[in-house]
Design a protein that fits this description.
mainly alpha; 2 domains
Amino acid sequence: MSYTSPAYFVLAAVLFAFYYVIPKRYRYLDLLAGSAMFYYLVSGGNLLLIGFFLLTVLFAFVMGIMIEQNGKQRTFLHIAGWTVLLAPLLVNRTRDFLLHGAWNSWILPVGISFYTMQLCAYLSDIAHGKIKAQRSFLRFLLFASFFPQIIQGPIPRYEQLAAQLEEGHDFDERTAEKGFCLILWGAFLKFMIADHAAVVVNAVFDHYAEYTGRYVWLAAVLYSIQLYADFLSCTTISQGVSLLFGIRLSGNFDHPYFSVSIRDFWRRWHISLSSWLRDYVYIPLGGSRKGNIRKYANLCLTFLVSGLWHGGAVQYLAWGLYHAFLQIMGSLVPKGITAKVPRVLQIIKTDLLVMAGWIIFRAQGLRASLTMLKGLFQRSYSLNWTMLGTDGYDMTVLLISVIILFAVSFLQGKESISDRLLRQNIVIRWTACISLIFVIVIFGAYGSGFNASDFIYGGF
């Protein structure tokens, strides 16, 4: 089951139907039952993996209470809790490094990269006195397994999500309607952009030795767009489904391709992960408080952790160090010089640097990424769509969809397009929604060559 499968939306609809007829104090049980069903289905009914997940949540639940109650041993318990929670993920990454993915028989629980960070943050916040430990295991289990976000984020903090899950919400028509609009927008991003772009991206990156010049440029640009649209899609759908129950998940992107620097980019890209790394890795290491040399070392370590979180391969570590290097170089440039450069040129420069990083991130290994980066500056024959597994029709659909995406991003400003739409009368609102449904159904990426069931970040 994925966030775009009919079964997922049937599950959400059933939970939605029951949620508002159950007494308020028991409504969290409706969400818990739905989360349990979702996790069972998405795990393929594998009871061993489900049991592993439940034991992990139980461990974090018990450790949270112990950390709160044992002031003298708080630091030790905090470190022990993190060690146990991170061990499966670290062992898996180490295995990938040593065996290069040759041994695939060890399957980890679904969503482990996301819920591990969620539970680690929970223990840290208790240890630092920011929150109180949860005393109800069922409520804590709901926080750890909330179905709209468990397998692909955003990564929530306990203080942001727990109270919303536990309290019963009154039905609000506008909130539910906004949720429906976000679900449609997420489907547009997935079917109209990410999956159309994936065809060209996969053709070039998976057979990189056959392509140079404009082919590599096209694939690199489209991968930058694909990754953004794909990840924004799944988090937007997660936000939309949550809003059906009156629950607001934090945003995970803030128009990252409008960034004027790499540092600005990381304030806008995968915000829940970036803020987690800042609060639980960079700042505890000392942040920027102990001189520039220590600050640069902390940046490198933080981005190494980010790379390792994405996968156990040298290319992910290289990608992390590449972004650390860019941030360090950016901090050395005098602000007076940067201020003289037109904003549009700063944005273009940042996007090109990010795109080069995405080549390292997506390529079939570090050697392949270096070959592709070199290929950017080599000549190529004129574009032939059949070589890329697509045609002019699909590329036109993709181009128009991308223009719509960036137009929406440009126009949003302080108010989202969905909020603007909800201020219109009912005829305009539903005409827009129904039109979007028809566009997705008619022009969306379905059939041979497309795989709409998989989100990219589900693989991490």
